[in-house]
Fold each of these.
Amino acid sequence: DDINNNREKEMDSIIIGAKKYIKDNYNKDLSLEEVAHNMAVSPYYFSKLFKKKTGENFIDYVTKLRIKKAQGLLRETGKSIKMIAHGVGYNDPNYFSRVFKKITGMSPREFKSS
């Protein structure tokens, strides 16, 4: 039991650290490999562990975080959609708009004016 408890704590610690790293770096070009390396585990292990512990895969988690941050910026700032896209980690504002619409059901422009 102690071994299993220690392993669970270690896995939880990896996920907590990864979430913090993602939160601190979501606005940069962020890869699963980079986060796994930062947590000192293999990308394969990290990917499986992240899905098991969070219920979603790495890229979906990062995408949802970026869109949530973008929603806040669209509500609270007068920044352009292009600036917001870059600010949350998207180099292509058109791709950002497609992802935003897929997740929220409306374009960034529609969201901003609603």
Amino acid sequence: MIMEYKCYFMTAKGEIWDYVMSRAPALQKLVNDFWDMTLWDYANLRYSFSGSLNEMRRVEFLKYTWDYIEKKHWKTIRENAIQSLMSNYCVSTADHHGPIGHPFFFQSAVLRWLTRPWEAIVNLCTSHVSLGNSSYPRGFVVHNKREPYLWLPFFSAKERMSPVFGHAGFKKKDVEKCLSVLSKHQSLFENSDYHSIKSWLQKNALSELILWKETYSEQITTLNELLWNDIFGANLPPLITLDGEKIVSELLCQHLKKETSLLKNIMTELSWQEEIENYFDGVSCCFEKKNRNWTYLFWHINADGERRALWRNNNTLNSEDATISVSLNAEALHKALKNGELIPSGLLMYTTLACYYGLTCFGGFAQGTYLPRIFAAYEKLAHKMWESVQIQTSILCEDMVLMRNEKGGIITALDMLLAKEECGIEKLLRNAKSTTLSDSIYMMLPEIARCL
């Protein structure tokens, strides 16, 4: 019966199903292995750490992460994040750093909370994405009566090419512009919903707690925690969305001060660079030499927030037009990282978090495909230093959907804030226990196809 349903289900998708599955092999494997399993059962099976650990490295990671959070965020965020990582050494590394709400990310966090309600949900979010990314990190997303979504931006379209990383925090005038967009579209909402959104933004985005923070990334972390708590209640485990590249920058700075380490050699050892280029070339989110896609080891970001790709020329990293040059030595890289002039690439993000420190990284259909390739490349480098490798499995956790509105739209965080009486724990649990993984992926097909 299951196989008959599966055949019908796949035929009903037609070309979009075939297209997505052909371009996302990790998703295809997920479907084959867990087709009729409910989201609840899948999450209980997969959403916990079950591998082996290098304990010294785990302790080192927790210490450096504690130090970073202590400098940037309040005490409860630091303590909740570290306690969660101590009990379950897992993070999501697929989210884009922005206000929670996009279908790819928000509901996946809800599912993690439902199945492990005793620990904080920790996400090390990607912040090198531009403000204009399709996941809309420059503001909030909410459904309304007539349009699929209303976008509420904190920054103008002129800044859409700037990355989230290092971007200055929004000011009072930016929030007022966001509120003016909402006011302009007031007729799209029920009167009570309009005033609820307006009131929440005024109370939180205009609070001194948010406005005094230096960077947008820091504001996002706090805003997301506040919104999560307002939806689900402060007594439930918090959602902690941290800037992944900032944390990795801190970790890499520590390695650059060491006499030797595998990560330091990846960044500075000239004799390793040709092998790195061979092993990682063409791996998504790392770099592609022929077509000059992505970047080599680091992105450069200037004082105006413009991000530039860098490419190796002997022992230096240069921009395409050679106006930027950074030496591949410990002193120069340490200084540039501390000054916020370099953003770690996907290569350094995943070799640091997943490969060296052994974190189990939750991700989506894309990460599930490229992370195993990064593991394989890293393993070859590790053998050069006679290091044993304890690589954790990449778990597909994102892209899971269990809540839609009456028109079939995937519910965002602001949607749930407006309808929290209708989206209580009982209904969320009921949906998680009745929605199969295949049904969930079906809901996400248009979003996934758009990204392939």
Amino acid sequence: MGNLKHLEAGGSAITRKADGNPEGKGLNGFLLDWYQSEPKGVVAKPQRQVLAELFTSMLVLSAKFKYRPTVGAAYYLYWINGEWSLSLIAPAEWSDERRAGFAGACVLQRDMTWTIAPSDLLAESNAVSDAIGRFYDAFAETLRTDLTLEEILPFYVRRLPYYQRLYASALSRSMRTALILGDQASTSCRRWYTRLPRQKEALLFYGG
């Protein structure tokens, strides 16, 4: 999977091989979505950055949304009625109830990872910080295995809605490439677990 075809000299990045259709013209439906979700500019990364980007990206992709995200655009993550929601509406434009669940502003990067500028609410004890804590606990638990990180990446999760499934696959392709470039592909998840910060929200601040 992935159609990542060319490793640049020195092993610092992976790019697509130039072809006769650089903008995906003529494609439609799933093929266009797949093309537009192709990771670009993937590079080797420090272990803490890998963990931060995986945690943040999985948090965003666990949210409800029914549109194709655009690289570089701002989105807003909320904890509302017991579930995560990714919205186009900024907290200042919404009700007090919605603002109380604001977790942070999210941006999809070219390499198909997500970064978050965390909300000030995460510095307090409240429903949204508690939800982040529970997600962190579940994330940490997935690392308690002798499998490698690549083996637990969500390349295809049937239960996810279409766009979440599409971008989870894109994230997995990006992460796999970064692991290979960083010579980290054989590192066990238990080793990654030891790199987790003690503060549960710290990964968001590192990745943002």
